[in-house]
Amino acid sequence: LDVTGFDISTTAIEWAKKLHPGSTVHYETQDLFALPASWRERYDLVVEVYTLQALPQKARIAAAAANRSLVAPDGTWFIYTRLRDDGPDAPPLVETESGPPWPLGRLELARFVDGLFADAPLVEAPDPVDPQVVRSHGTWRRNLGPGAS
Prior knowledge:
Elements: E1 4-7, H1 10-19, E2 26-29, E3 43-49, H2 57-69, E4 71-84, E5 104-105, H3 106-112, E6 117-118, E7 123-126, E8 134-141
Parallel strand pairs: 1-2, 3-4, 4-5
Antiparallel strand pairs: 4-8, 6-8, 7-8
């Protein structure tokens, strides 16, 4: 596979290179909110693990859009996150000093993947250590053809 890994932290990128000196991964220092135009719709698989839930809600829409923009036509977006209820009867998310993480809401996640094809139902499971925490993962595919998102 031709893999690109990126982080905004140069220190994190240098650490990854030192940890995996023989790796063929292309490690790059990049800002999720200012990605190179050449990366748009370039990747067959985009993996999102815990980045969105580490951001305040006001930054999540732009971060999710940036992640999604990387997915090539007919490519797949894999998301692994903590999940919470955010329907009309759910308590609001309170961003406190105890976080991050701040779990994604089910409706929030649905908005992020709106217009993409779900490869399979979203998998949800209680954390084995803390059953109050729900972890989930799913994959969504960018559709081909006119009107693809």
